[in-house]
Specification:
By secondary structure, the protein is α+β, with helices and mostly antiparallel strands. The protein folds into three domains: about 290 residues, no CATH class; about 120 residues, no CATH class; about 60 residues, Arc Repressor Mutant, subunit A (Orthogonal Bundle). It is about 40% helix and about 20% strand. The strands form four sheets. The protein has a nine-stranded mixed sheet with strand order 2-6-7-10-1-11-12-13-14. A three-stranded antiparallel sheet has the order 5-4-15, with no helix packed on it.
Length: about 475
């Protein structure tokens, strides 16, 4: 039987407020355990929460960026459950009246197309603490520093068809929150986490299969692996005569398997009721409009501008707008290179990002700043150096050299562009390889193209890579085509 996968994601985004959603406690990451949890965060008797308006502003920004409806009235509910890292015994969240509803994002696909994924809602809530299982000699430690940190939970419709689409959607959400500067999106630190609802059904069936929820996945790579593993498990289970049980499961990245965490609760199991300590939030259109006017240029808008202003392909533009830091780097590089946009795009998406990925660095940690890379590209554009020599200069900049001109001068890398000198090199190579020349001249057009590279290689070797490749090709054609 052929199966199809149905996936919906619940993305938890920690908002970058300085204090928690209902208290003045710090949200700074990395503090000593249990030093940033106040009596309000712990729900101690006699304490009352006070809503953090900055969290509201950030949620509205996200809603506007995702083409969503902003509710002029929203309210908090209590979701009751008992878990060691939930000190109150409940979570303050939004069930019935969320702040953001009915939005969408367009997700780029591998084939170059796009798919629209609808967002059901994005609601405000407080984060729980964190259970620590390492270094406690068989016990579990509880760190409540995170308890009360403001979140938006972004709930998609179940419209993703495979793990790659899910990751692409997740990357779009990640890019949006970074552009809006409402979260650093650091998945390793838990600033963005993902729950994946996964089910399978026979191709053509309209009814959804029984879903399982994969909880708290904290990297793009693990999201893809976890979904693929769970899909395979469900199909194997059904085809062997079993039945998928609705449940919450954890993904074990070490064993590449999912395992049961608990049977899936329904909404009534949480005994939701309106939070008695918080009034409903009411905002007017002028508040929303003020925030709308403050929105930055968003990734898809920037990509369209890059295609128009810099004549880049959609593919190049999409890579460069992955983060606003990368997009800013590109524009600074273009300015420094005297407007060599396509060459800048090629070097950033190729050599630079390749080197950064190899060292596990982001663009903000690049040893080469955009002005340095732009200076290198300017020397390629004016034929001071060839693209091949430029790789040597790039490596020197990566190791700490100040600028391309200094490297070119010290290492004597300036390209040979004197036509007389190149003509001499061409003639020497022709004279040294009479058999290959005879074979070339006797060959048909197809074979000549393959043989031509031999002569180019010999000339570049003789010039130690400094001869201008374009001139080499032109002069070589003239000599070889002589009768």
């Amino acid at each position: 039987m052929n199966w199809e996968t149905v996936i919906g994601l619940e993305v938890h985004v920690q908002l970058a407020t300085k204090s928690k959603i209902f208290s003045g406690s710090s949200t700074a990451f990395g503090a000593e355990a249990n030093t940033q949890a106040s009596l309000i965060d712990l729900g101690m008797p006699g304490t009352l929460p006070v809503f953090n308006e900055e969290a509201l502003r950030m949620a509205v920004k996200f809603g506007l960026a995702t083409h969503s409806s902003i509710s002029h009235r929203s309210a908090f509910d209590r979701k009751n459950y008992f878990y060691p890292d939930s000190p109150k015994g409940y979570q303050t969240t939004q069930l019935h009246e969320a702040i953001v509803n009915n939005g969408y994002v367009d997700v780029p696909l591998e084939d170059g197309g796009h798919k629209r994924i609808n967002i059901l809602r994005a609601h405000l809530e407080e984060d729980a603490g964190k259970s620590l299982h390492e270094d406690f000699h068989g016990f579990t430690g509880i760190d409540l520093n995170r308890a009360g940190t403001p979140l938006i939970e972004v709930v998609s419709e179940p419209e993703m068809s495979n793990a790659k689409e899910a990751v692409a959607y997740l990357r779009v959400i990640h890019s949006i929150i970074r552009y809006l500067e409402i979260s650093d999106g650091n998945m390793a630190e838990g600033s963005m986490r993902c729950d994946a609802n996964v089910s399978v059904r026979p191709v053509g069936q309209k009814e959804l299969g029984t879903r399982t929820e994969l909880k708290n996945i904290n990297s793009f790579r693990f999201v893809e692996r976890a979904i693929n593993t769970e899909v395979e498990r469900q199909i194997d289970l059904i085809e062997s005569g079993g039945k998928v049980i609705q449940a919450t499961r954890l993904y074990d990245s070490n064993k590449n398997e999912t395992r049961p965490m608990r049977s899936k609760e329904e909404a009534n199991d949480y005994r939701y009721f309106p939070c008695p300590d918080l009034l409903p939030i009411e905002i007017d259109e002028s508040y929303v409009q003020t925030i709308r006017e403050s929105l930055p240029e968003l990734p898809w808008e920037k990509a369209a501008r890059f295609q128009g202003d810099y004549q880049l392909s959609e593919y190049d533009a999409q890579i460069l707008v992955t983060s606003h830091e990368l997009a800013n780097y590109f524009e600074a590089c273009v300015k420094a290179s005297q407007a060599e946009a396509k060459l800048c795009a090629n070097w950033i998406s190729g050599a630079l990002l390749g080197a950064l990925n190899k060292e596990n660095l982001d663009i903000g940690q690049s040893p080469i700043n955009p002005e340095q890379l732009g200076g290198l590209i300017a020397r390629i554009a004016d034929n001071t150096i060839s693209g091949k020599i430029a790789k040597t200069v790039f490596e020197a900049l990566w190791e700490g050299a100040k600028n391309a001109d200094e490297v070119i001068e010290k290492q004597g890398l300036k390209q040979v562009t004197d036509s007389g000198a190149i003509q001499s090199l061409v003639e020497d190579v022709i004279a040294q390889n009479p058999e290959q020349v005879a074979n070339y001249r006797a060959a048909d057009e197809t074979k000549r193209k393959k043989m031509f590279g031999f002569f180019v290689g010999q000339i570049m070797k003789a010039s130690k890579g400094k001869a201008n490749p374009k001139q080499v090709n032109q002069l070589l054609v003239e000599v070889l085509d002589k009768p």
